[in-house]
């Protein structure tokens, strides 16, 4: 039986710093989570929007990975913060991937920035700057989540589950086609959502790939993506 092919969106990273040499970059733990679940991960580098159709065609499922802020022009706002942590090329390409994944009926698993971008693609908006959602230690967790009963997340995580937090933006207005399924009890931040209709979409605000090695629930997210979503 052929393995499920999971495309993972890549970022670009200059290595060594100040060298001018760009590498395609994605957290290894994302691809490891897919492999542990029995899938075949393929990293998709940032490309031209017109390339999205062919990329989506060759994968079975799509992971939108974490990274930069989403440019507010895509949800009808001006920039409110001083930051250079944006990539217009990445936004444009990944928005095209989302459109194609929906058109071709390919499941989407969206992580952190990816979750925010899918919300924007479907008509939602973002808080451009939030406080107290960036933990200093890459390892470990920072707060728990409240989970909506009878949701996809509730099938994978127990009440009181602790998650990590590495984001400086968050969902403001949730797109009409999505339903929130987990929140941060401290301030109500949406930590997970899923699609209401026929499209298979699961969005997670935290980074499960950093927790999956030592947390079976977070690995089950990848199992769910490969085998069920």
From TrEMBL:
PROSITE patterns cross-referenced by the UniProt entry: GATASE_TYPE_1 (PS51273)
Pfam families per record: Peptidase_C26 (PF07722)
Sorted UniProt keywords: Glutamine amidotransferase, Transferase
GO cellular component: cytosol
Listed GO MF terms: gamma-glutamyl-gamma-aminobutyrate hydrolase activity; transferase activity
Record keyword Transferase present: yes
Domain of life assignment: Bacteria
GO annotation terms (biological process): polyamine catabolic process
Keyword Transferase: yes
Entries under InterPro entries matching the protein: Class_I_gatase-like, Peptidase_C26, PuuD-like
Protein name (record): Putative glutamine amidotransferase
Organism (species): Streptococcus varani
């Amino acid at each position: 039986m052929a393995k499920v092919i999971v495309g993972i969106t890549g970022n670009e990273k200059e290595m060594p710093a100040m060298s001018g040499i760009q590498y395609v970059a994605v957290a290894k733990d994302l691809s490891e989570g897919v492999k542990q679940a029995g899938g075949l991960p393929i990293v998709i580098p940032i490309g031209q929007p017109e390339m999205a159709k062919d990329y989506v065609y060759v994968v079975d499922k799509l992971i939108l990975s974490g990274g930069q802020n989403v440019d507010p022009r895509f949800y009808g706002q001006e920039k409110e913060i001083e930051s250079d942590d944006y990539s217009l090329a990445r936004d444009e390409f990944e928005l095209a991937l989302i459109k194609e994944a929906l058109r071709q009926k390919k499941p989407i698993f969206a992580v952190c920035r990816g979750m925010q971008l899918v919300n924007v693609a479907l008509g939602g908006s973002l808080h451009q700057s939030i406080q107290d959602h960036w933990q200093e230690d890459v390892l470990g967790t920072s707060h728990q989540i409240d989970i909506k009963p009878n949701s996809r997340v509730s099938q994978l995580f127990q009440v009181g589950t602790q998650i990590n937090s590495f984001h400086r933006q968050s969902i403001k207005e949730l797109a009409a086609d999505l339903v929130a399924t987990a929140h941060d009890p401290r301030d109500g931040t949406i930590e997970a959502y899923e699609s209401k209709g026929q499209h298979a979409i699961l969005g997670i605000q935290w980074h499960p790939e950093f927790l999956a090695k030592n947390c079976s629930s977070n690995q089950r997210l990848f199992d769910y993506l490969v085998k069920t979503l």
